[in-house]
Write a structure and sequence with these properties.
Chain lengths: 210, 210, 210, 210
DNA sequence: CATGAATGAGGCTTCATTCAT
DNA sequence: TATGAATGAAGCCTCATTCAT
């Protein structure tokens, strides 16, 4: 029984490779310079290609940026799903979400910037691209909210608004990434994640529930 | 008892008035259009002056933006201090911090944008202006951290890292502002602030401390 | 009795001067390089200003080009009207039309190019600007057609389709301009105009009417 | 009597076939989009080959365009010669010239565009290609001028400058093509050609010769 | 021969900044 | 001081041309 030839020509493979290469470059440049300062020229330089080549793979700047972010979200979601699948118990799963986000964002700084800059806050809903971007962020938040909701039904969390809680948790994750960026990567990440989760789970108040 | 005439010439008063006027205009334009889209032309229009005049009061765009943000922080700090002074008990003080930040940011969207966009996260210390900006954010976080620390000594909070806790709390505040912006201002702000504080103080875990 | 102050500020005069200056430069560059090769950069150079300045007076390239042509037509119409007004008899008036067009086009080569290149032939009726351009050409042809029609009613011309005759006459004018451009301006223009009119009026056939 | 096998290899035949194929594609694209908008990419698409292939047959864009026009002229000359050969009398021959030009130009709009845009009118003799182009136009005009001259010697035309008359006649032809393009092809072409020839032969003046 | 991905010069446009008035 | 016309660097994008496959 012969293995069927993969349904991809060599050209398609090359094309996908280039596409990914550009997306990675875009993410890195956005990460370094911020959304506003990232230029096509610099992205091309970073990718080791010429300006014009980018336009063979992406319609324009906005499309490239939207895809770069989307690509980042896809990878983050993949990592996150894998990590949560391995974890037993919803509390552990939530912990894995936080750890994945931090780890991933340190690798791909640009991804972090999306969480931080929220380009969707510009003149509301300008383009289809920014709509899709917003949808990506929403999906990610929803994923965490679902986790919290299932955990609540399983008796692990108390009855809090899962959406708001998810957003707050992810905002907490952001503070860790902030700190990592400011101070430079160091080995205390896990500790900070633990503190965040401790705070998220048990609160800051002394003694019992207020 | 007469108040001594301030040792300021009329020119200085006018100068300060103009400065403030421009700063407010800058904050409003940044708020409406975002950091990247805010142009000197529009700021001048909003301030009712001409482009060139701005350069009599500010060195360049970056300096103007940095001062606009700084100005925002000063106002926020003032409001926050007043609010916390009135409150009794550190838990109540923390609550006032959150409420002040949300209220202020809804009034001055631009201020929120700084928290969100964090232009100072670029290549560390790109410019003197961005250094001062960072310092402002730090001061604000420090203020909240001090509050938490004193609260801890007063037995109201358990022994958590006050800096990290402050950052996480403020990140939570941001999520509320996000939501307000996305859904449009509505009267549930107080409710969301309460939920945030409940979560911050008591955590998400069911039952007692984990 | 005091002369009323002209209803124009100095700024308006300067503005109009610059506008005209740019329009002339545009017409000259279009004349030298053709429609397709004329760039904003070269027009700016020719006008002795910088690229950016053009955009203070014209929205974009298309608007500039459309106005440049329109401006040319306005001048041509003015000259033509003045010349025909002076002439007695419709035959003489037609002669003046031809002479005006040739003279004017040699002064403003770019204007000729419009007649020659017919940018309105591109992907039909693409823009408002090209619509207005077409309208200008039509107006000019109509003016000549009216002249021919009145001349016919006055018994000076026989009953030919005035529109087609007008177009043909103007096409004949073009050939003279062509020749002038190719050979360089020389003093035979009047002779060529006379030959054109002789042919237009009396035809090429030997003997009487065929 | 056998026709001797042409001394051409198969390769040469293929080469000529490709060349012609590209020239036709170029003419059609120029006809549809205009001189400025015609890109190598679209010509390649229309010819069913790839961009790079064009460069195996033509040095560059200008050379291709020049050859495309030249090719058009060759075809027009061929058609015109055939048509005039059939006609009896010089007046009839001239009539056939006009009809051929109109018919041909409606079939190959691009050809007309050259007559209209006259890229060779730029700074005299910019390139070898534009020189050859000019020569083509001249040849065509010369052919018509010769016809008129012979007609004059045969007593059919009166003694007018044959060159200028030829240019004027051809310019008149252009106006018909213009009109056809603007209004869309319709069956009145012959009528317009007749009117043109009537005007060309008999003139516009009422009564006898002026 | 043929391809089409890659290049990079060049075109249009914006906008922070300067400077003569 | 205040103005705003002018500047020109820099950004996005197109397309003629090249070249490795």
């Amino acid at each position: 029984m012969s293995i069927p030839r993969p349904a991809r020509t060599k050209e398609e493979v090359v094309k996908e490779f280039r596409t990914t290469e550009i997306l990675e470059a875009a993410r890195r440049v956005i990460g370094e310079l911020g959304y506003g300062e990232a230029s096509m020229e610099r992205i091309a330089q970073k990718a080791g290609i010429s300006k014009g080549t980018i336009y063979l793979y992406f319609e324009n700047k906005e499309a490239l940026f939207a895809r770069a972010i989307e690509h980042g979200f896809e990878q983050l979601m993949e990592k996150t799903r894998a990590a949560t699948r391995r974890a037993r118990g919803h509390t552990a799963k939530v912990s894995e979400v936080a750890r994945s986000a931090v780890e991933y964002s340190l690798d791909y700084l640009s991804f972090y910037r999306v969480l931080a800059e929220r380009p969707d806050l510009g003149p509301a809903g300008r383009s289809a691209a920014s709509d899709r971007l917003r949808a990506n962020v929403d999906d990610y938040v929803q994923y965490v909210a679902d986790l919290l909701e299932r955990g609540t039904r399983a008796g692990e969390f108390r009855g809090i608004n899962p959406h708001q809680a998810a957003r707050i948790l992810l905002a907490g994750v952001r503070t860790i990434i902030d700190e990592q960026i400011r101070e430079g990567k160091h080995p205390l990440v896990q500790e900070e994640v633990d503190t965040l989760l401790d705070l998220f789970l048990n609160g800051a108040a002394a003694g019992g529930r207020s």
